[in-house]
Amino acid sequence: MKINKTATALLAFLAINLALAGNGQTASGESKKDAIQKSLAQATSVLETRAGTEPVVLIGSSLILAPLWSVDVADGAFFKDCMQHHTSSHLEKLVDRPVVSLATAGQFVSDTYLITEKLLNGKQRPSVLIYGVAPRDFMDDTTGGLAMTSVFDSLVETKDFSKIDKLFFNNFDERGDFVLNRSVFLYRKRGRYQAKVQDFAAKFEDKMLAQLPVSNQAGSVTGASTDANTKSASSANLTTNADPLANFLLGGDRDAVWKQSIEEYAKRYKHFNAKQFDKQKECFRALTALCAERKIKLCVVAMPLTDDNLKLMPPGLYQRYISFVKEATKEAAVPFLDLQSAKAYDESNFYDTVHLNSKGGEKFLSTVSNLVREHDSLATSRATKTY
Questions:
Q1: What are 88-98's pLDDT values in tens digits?
Q2: Full-prediction pTM beyond 0.85?
Q3: Which run of H or of E encompasses 254?
Q4: CA torsion angle for 25, 31, 34, 39 (degrees, to 10)?
Q5: Which of 100, 108, 176, 208 is 20 to 30 Å from 38 by CA-CA measure?
């Protein structure tokens, strides 16, 4: 029986995909995860250990991670990886109940919706869900579509397509990309393998240059070698900066950290992406509707930012963001607290232009504890009236 070349190629392609998919599994059976996916997995684990306790749950980006981590460290509990810190000993003492953080670095509104939809699905209900928001959660010029985040990659399955279709996708190309990502392993992991090929090529080039005579390296080759070293240094910087909280662990010169934060957010805010902003607005409304449907008590907090960070934003971005959040929370009857307009935080409360340090973190956690007490008081009042 003859097998044509096309069928042979197809079978080989499928075999490679299956082999790579199998090789991409760890001993525990879980797919290899990036830093954000590991953080989300740890947060899920912490949430599961609090089953039946109705904890206070905080959700959002690294702007939530930072104060929880820095205050606990200031209290004497050192955690080597702030990305994996998903509770708050300090806040637990203030509210007298368990606290769980579902915050992950770089979390968009769309990611928050997915985490809430998948993890707070009735099996685990928080006593109150505190959502810390900021303009970058709605618009970041350094990222792609809503379906290209680590959270999306970790939580969304093919069977979820009909549920998220209109909310996450704009056109046929994005829908097709999602199907290919979920059905073809090589396509889904193409970025990882492209990076490996580029890394191999750079190492091979360095190795070949090292074998050349010194005299040859001193001439025109010196320029190439220097350029290669510059590229390597740039790659190293990008790797370090992949963790937005890395500097919390490294310490160092605050002025340098502040400057680096300005450079980072100048790129994030470089162009206003209206399509991305509007999509995130839809996800915000979907989040408030989801919480109402599941009887999750949601409180939204606009996180404080420094003047240096505000100056980097495209004209009108902050006003469009804050106006929308006020309008959407009012329509959904969701409590909203604007910490930016309160002007209670100055530069001494920040580690960089957006992340609160332990001093600012204590203020923030005190505010959160007040929100929880107000919620408890309101819930008691309603229960009494109903009775």
A1: 999 999 999 99
A2: no
A3: helix 254-268
A4: -130
A5: 176
